[in-house]
Write a structure and sequence with these properties.
The structure is a single chain. Strand 1 and strand 2 form a beta hairpin. The protein is an alpha+beta fold and 153 residues long. The chain has two domains: 54 residues, Multidrug-efflux Transporter Regulator, Chain: A, Domain 2; 78 residues, no CATH class. It is built from six helices and four strands, in the order H-H-E-E-H-H-H-H-E-E. The chain is 57% helix and 13% strand. It comes from Paracoccus spongiarum. It is found in: Cytoplasm. This is Cu(I)-responsive transcriptional regulator. InterPro entries: CueR (IPR011789), DNA-bd_dom_put_sf (IPR009061), MerR-type_HTH_dom (IPR000551), MerR_fam (IPR047057), Tscrpt_reg_MerR_DNA-bd (IPR015358).
């Protein structure tokens, strides 16, 4: 099949197929007499493997390791499991980092008056990364309380 058909069958764009070929993640495609790339069902299966691995967040370097293990019928499942658990650890770390970003932004947005004044904690935090005060107030327990703005990490 040609590159367009391989792209459609694998879910990997033609541009990415050419890229994977250029970095030798997949073997160089065979060519027709007129120079068009030709892909076998095995190569399309490999592209699906790469697509699924990318969908799970694996880097190109880790996909190279996974492909090598996939091809190696003498592999140990412990090697594959190690790559998967390392990926899980990395994804969980990213989730924690993203949750910290959400918490910081939520705090800053909650502390912002959102009125006609130009000053507020969001831009102050982004611009300075240090503590800033404001004359904005928030309601806690029914009374106005000054809000302290800070940069959290």
């Amino acid at each position: 099949m040609n590159i367009g058909e391989a792209a459609k069958a694998s879910g990997v764009s033609a541009k990415m197929i050419r890229y994977y070929e250029s970095i030798r993640l997949i073997p160089t495609a065979g060519r027709t007499g007129s120079g068009y790339r030709v892909y076998s069902p095995t190569e399309v299966q490999m592209l699906r493997f790469i697509r699924r691995s990318r969908d799970l967040g694996f880097s190109v370097e880790k996909i190279e390791e996974l492909l090598a293990l996939w091809r190696d019928r003498t592999r140990q499942s412990a090697d594959v499991k190690r790559l998967a658990t390392d990926q899980i650890d990395g994804l969980e770390r990213k989730v924690r980092e993203m949750q910290a970003m959400i918490d910081t932004l939520r705090h800053l947005a909650d502390a912002c008056c959102g009125d006609h004044r130009p000053d507020g904690p969001i831009l102050a935090d982004l611009g300075h990364g240090v503590e800033h005060g404001s004359d904005c107030t928030t309601q806690q327990s029914g009374k106005a309380v000054p809000v302290q703005h800070f940069h959290s990490r």
